[in-house]
Amino acid sequence: MPIVDVSPGVSIAYESFGDPGDPPVLLVMGFGAQLLSWHEDFCRALAARGRFVIRYDNRDCGLSTKFDDHPVDMGRFITAVSSGDLPFALAMVPYGLPDMAADGLGLLSAIGIERAHVVGASMGGMIAQTMAITHPERVLTLTSMMSSTGETAYGQSTPEAQAVLFAPKPADRAGYIAAADRDLVWASKRYGDTAVLRERAARSYDRAYYPAGVGRQLGAMILNGSRADALRELRVPTLVIHGLDDTLIDPSGGQRTADLVPGAKLLLIPDMGHDRPRELWPEIIDAMEAHTG
Asked: Is 57 a catalytic residue?
């Protein structure tokens, strides 16, 4: 798998699908998830629509650079955020969403792409929004999927989903795979499938089991703050996709994003949770093809 240097001390692992001569689409993954979560069949289906598709591991995940010199105690971090001690929380985290956005843009530069269609899911949507905000000249279109604006009044998790998100997973392979069943709490009610969740967990564990990065990514996400004012000024063509079954980031997060970005299109998908069930790929890919055409 190719790994490229995107800035001093940061290397990013990526894969591509399709013809490099086609319009490039950069897929940005979410919190704690490797590039595997953009399923290769999904990537190939999008590439078959005439797109050059790139998926990559965020820093502190998969095969990209790990920030082992900055351990984050999740319990202390969550306590600090909950009590409002943001200076202490900020001091624990070595990077923010702008750094993660710079990684994605740095990847594009490293492989010779000046401008791309950028698609982000969950935390990846926040990163993609940040790319468009900080470097709109490099983002042909933005697709923000099952994400939010950083405002605390929108896109909140249910208590049950939040409990699963913050619960530590077993370190042994069998336990880690079995724990994937918990993710049904935010999956599609109609299409959620424990076999699919377990298969992805097994592949992720075998490829690059690395729980230490989760706390740093969480800190970058939580401490980024509101992007509302910047989104109001955004002039990048924007598509917002959100599942109506999403309990991890409530659909109000997607609705709010679309309300803020001038001219944004909103696609609310029934039977989609905080996931992309294979049964809904045709609808999602149709929308992405039309938006990036």
From this structure: no
